[in-house]
Design goal:
The protein has helices at about 1-20, 30-35, 50-60, 70; strands at about 90-100, 110, 115-125, 130-135, 140-150, 155-165, 200-210, 210-220, 235-245, 270-280, 285-300, 300-315, 325-335, 340-350, 355-370, 370-380, 385-395. By secondary structure, the chain is mainly β. The protein has a single domain (about 1-395), classed as Porin, CATH 2.40.160.10. Strands 1-3-4-5-6-7-8-9-10-11-12-13-14-15-16-17 form a 16-stranded antiparallel beta barrel. The two termini are about 35 Å apart.
Length: about 400
């Protein structure tokens, strides 16, 4: 274990030196440039969002409330250090990892996974917002969609394109740690369905009052053959609802705070939600349904996430045998100061054929608002097989 700790320390030290060494100017991503504000307006340790960042995303990347920073002319000197003009709605994000795994060859891989992504996002005069991404590493596009606000004066949001449906309280990239959650990536049998996979479709959502958010959508089913032709005439359907019981609401309004006395409710945010999904998958004639319930509790800079999903596939392996699946997630994170976050995550998954447990503690530190270094230990056990690895990484956005 001392060898592992030493290896990670060496990797992080090299990465940190590369970040703080002279030559690269601080960069602020597209939304911060467009709205003349800082990354921390919407993020804790990027890309994990805070309460206001979640409200911004739910409003279709349109600034919640009546005034944006552009309107009040805030000054943010960090913006002028960026090499991309604020009028160009483009950002880039890179991740470079070094991995230590005693069961791999070589044990210390200083050239682990590297990704470089480009994305564009913005809004059209507060009437619609768009988002698109492209991954240079695998040459694939990700989410590409437009989200209309109050179309034809109907008080709803309508999203169309290729997107990840709103099922969970948090998206797969809404995390400070490196390892993606198996909780939202689990597959059953030969079915390609994952909770966090992007699909073509249409979604309608609405904020009720300011503390209830609901969404419903229809997606193209994964029922294409090898030539891309649909093999079944069907669509996937889903519904989702969540409620922000306390804390900043979905319109970006912070709760009133008494100046005379402190109350636990002044710093407590509670969010609960759930979803139901019904769909079909390719390869075999498999119909499935999944449901989930989640909760997030945040007090000051301490955050807890809890989740449970349950699923049923009627023919995931093409043998006319049904399978039931389930998954659990428990995560705690603590923000130290404003630049360091400690995270611990536990997952338990059963896809009907094998059981998986994951334990993943990590530490993330913002060297700059848009540059962070991360160290993470991942212990994964699949039935009787186990894997232990340590990952060090540098992540940057501009």
């Amino acid at each position: 274990m001392k060898k592992i700790a030493g290896a990670v320390a060496a990797v992080i030290a090299v990465l940190a030196f590369q970040v703080v060494a002279p030559g690269e100017a601080q960069a602020i991503p597209a939304f911060a440039r467009q709205y003349n504000t800082e990354c921390k307006t919407c993020h804790t340790i990027f890309p994990e969002r805070n309460e206001f960042g979640e409200a911004f995303e739910k409003n279709g990347f349109i600034w919640p409330g009546k005034k944006s920073p552009k309107q009040v002319q805030q000054k943010n000197e960090a913006l002028f250090l960026s090499g991309i003009p604020s009028e160009i709605p483009i950002s880039f994000m890179g991740t470079h990892e070094a991995v230590y795994n005693k069961d791999s060859t070589p044990r210390l891989n200083l050239f682990g996974t590297s990704e470089f992504e480009m994305f564009t996002a913005g809004s059209f005069q507060d009437k619609a917002g768009w988002f698109a991404e492209y991954n240079f590493s695998d040459g694939a596009t990700g989410e590409i969609y437009i989200k209309f606000r109050n179309p034809l004066n109907v008080p709803v949001f309508v999203r169309a394109g290729n997107f990840k449906p709103v099922l969970n309280l948090w998206k797969s990239n809404n995390r400070a740690a490196l390892e993606k959650m198996d909780y939202i990536q689990m597959k059953v049998g030969k079915s390609p369905f994952k909770i966090n996979s992007a699909r073509e479709g249409v979604e309608v959502s609405k904020i009720f009052g300011s503390r209830i958010f609901a969404a419903a959508g229809a997606l193209n089913s994964n029922t294409d053959d090898a030539d891309g032709n649909p093999t079944r005439d069907s669509n996937d359907w889903y519904i989702h609802a969540q409620a922000r019981l306390s804390g900043t609401d979905y319109e970006g309004n912070e709760p009133e705070v008494s100046l005379d006395s402190d109350s636990i409710m002044d710093f407590l945010t509670i969010t609960v939600g759930g979803f139901w999904y019904s769909g079909s998958s390719q390869v075999v004639a498999n119909d499935f349904s999944k449901a989930g319930i989640e909760a997030e509790v945040m007090y000051r800079t301490l955050r807890f996430r809890l989740g449970f999903t349950k699923g049923n596939d009627d023919n995931p392996n093409g043998d006319n045998k049904s399978l039931e699946s389930s998954s659990w997630l428990a995560q705690a994170s603590y923000l130290i100061g404003s630049d360091t976050m400690v995270v611990a995550r536990y997952e338990s998954l059963d896809n009907g054929a094998k059981e998986t447990t994951v334990l993943a503690p990590s530490v993330a530190h913002n060297v700059l608002q848009n540059v962070k270094v991360v160290a993470e230990y991942v212990h994964k056990k699949v039935d009787s097989a186990r894997e232990d690895k340590v990952v060090g990484a540098i992540v940057y956005a501009f």
